Amino acid sequence: MKKNILIIGVFAGLLVLSSCKKVLDADPLSLISPEVVWSSKANAETFVFGTYDGIMGAYTCGLKGAEDTYTSNIVGAYGGASSALPVFTETLTNRDDYGFNNWGSVRRCNVIIKNVTESAGISDPDKKALVAEAKFLRAMSYFNIARKTGRIVWIDKVLTENDDLKLPSTANPTESYNYIIKDLEDAVADLPTTKVAGRTNKYVAAAFLTEVCLQALAYKNIRQHRTLHQMIHCSIKLLPMRNW
């Protein structure tokens, strides 16, 4: 009898260990599957929150000094020939940053837009707000580049290894700012008015749209479906200070 009880106990223990292993033995252990991340608004927001840091850091860092030393031609970047050394010595890698390497941040924004839009577990109103937040962040990332170099490489989808990665830059600053302004217009339209510390909302996006429009006025022939002056006027009307 004791022998039978012992065998049953061992068998039960093995079943428990087996079930625990199935639940906990995720590979790789440091990652959560995309299905889980995009299954709900709360889970998706953890990815959104993690996107702010790099973009805000690059934006605020750029405010500390003049940006005129940057150029999309790395041979002349920073106003000196030393930047050309990695090119001529063939030591340049995809990790080198010459003031226009925002690919990681842009990809995160595009991942949010794609997966939130396709999610079956996020409601339509929440989808609109999260996509708008991602467009705001994408615009901020690109604005940080545009004010340094004028021209940007506009990417609005999640690229894969099968895509042609030899992507052109915009023809001129006018085209760059048109893309950025369009993202911010979409963000203003769909972001909530709720104030949450450390997170954008409709009024923040409208204020940022005003900043971008004022910067864009430095270039000629910027054209949208509204003039920049009209856009600035509209965005300012959205800015009751108590809601910031």
Q: Count the helices. How many?
A: 9
Give the overall form. Answer: globular
Q: What portion of residues is helical?
A: 55-70%
Structural class: mainly alpha
Give the strand tally: 0
Low-confidence stretches: 19-24
Q: Please, what is the average pLDDT?
A: 78
Cα end-to-end separation: 74 Å
Radius of gyration: 24 Å
Outline of this structure?
This protein has 244 residues and is an all-alpha fold. 56% of the residues lie in helices and 0% in strands.
Describe this structure in words.
Helix 3 (41-61) packs antiparallel against helix 5 and helix 3 runs parallel beside helix 6 (124-149). This protein is globular. With 244 residues, it is mainly α. It is built from 9 helices and no strands. It has helices at 2-24, 34-37, 41-61, 85-88, 103-118, 124-149, 173-190, 202-216, 228-237. Helix content is 56%, strand content 0%.
List the helices and strands and how they pair.
Elements: H1 2-24, H2 34-37, H3 41-61, H4 85-88, H5 103-118, H6 124-149, H7 173-190, H8 202-216, H9 228-237
Helix pairs in contact: 3-5, 3-6, 5-6, 6-7, 6-8, 7-8, 8-9
